[in-house]
């Protein structure tokens, strides 16, 4: 596939309460709300094997996180199908997480620990050995079930870089220090 003109536009996340999620992302991660849309009366797409879109009321908000990502938050209400009681774990089919690069992971963890709408799923870990030796990471869980990873790594200092010219894309403020 020729991908010179292909780019990731956004990550879409389903949330149970749009207002709560917008507040969380703007307060906890400094996202900027760009616009809201809806309510719409159906999901807008046909799931394989179904003759019509699922009946639901859909509202959405599009957020921007600095110069790095667009995040779409979707709230589906009055659904014709029943929700699972909890969100899928990252190890389950359909499970996912959103990751934020952070310069000072320990300072952000300390700040987020003051919030009552997140629970950390461990402590900040530092990779020992392997292709990402030195990378720091931790997972947290929002009160509505979204898994978020915070991570930090140094461009040009990960062991995988020795064996390939391919590079992970760093945040914009570090791109001038990265090679490749």
TrEMBL record:
Key words of the record: Metal-binding
Occurrences of domain VOC (ranges): 7-153
Gene Ontology molecular function: any one: metal ion binding
Secreted keyword on record: no
SUPFAM superfamilies: Glyoxalase/Bleomycin resistance protein/Dihydroxybiphenyl dioxygenase
Regions that span the bilayer: none
Biological source species: Mycolicibacterium hodleri
Family matches, as InterPro entries: Glyas_Bleomycin-R_OHBP_Dase (IPR029068), MMCE/EMCE_epimerase (IPR051785), VOC_core (IPR037523)
Pfam family, one: Glyoxalase_4
UniProt-recorded name of the protein: VOC family protein
Keyword Metal-binding found: yes
GO BP term (any one): L-methylmalonyl-CoA metabolic process
């Amino acid at each position: 596939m020729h991908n010179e003109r292909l780019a990731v536009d956004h990550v879409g996340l389903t949330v149970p309460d749009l207002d709560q999620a917008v507040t969380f992302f703007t307060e906890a991660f400094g996202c900027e709300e760009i616009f809201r849309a809806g309510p719409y009366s159906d999901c807008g797409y046909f799931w394989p094997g179904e003759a019509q879109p699922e009946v639901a009321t859909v509202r959405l908000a599009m957020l921007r996180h600095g110069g790095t990502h667009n995040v779409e938050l979707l709230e589906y209400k009055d659904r014709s199908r029943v929700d699972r009681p909890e969100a899928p774990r990252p190890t389950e089919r359909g499970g996912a997480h959103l990751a934020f690069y952070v310069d000072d992971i320990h300072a952000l963890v300390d700040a987020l620990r003051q919030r009552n709408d997140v629970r950390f799923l461990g402590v900040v870990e530092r990779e020992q050995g392997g292709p990402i030796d030195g990378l720091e990471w931790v997972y947290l869980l929002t009160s509505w079930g979204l898994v978020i990873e915070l991570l930090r790594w140094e461009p040009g200092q990960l062991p995988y870089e020795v064996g390939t010219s391919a590079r992970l894309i760093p945040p914009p403020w570090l791109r001038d220090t990265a090679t490749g």
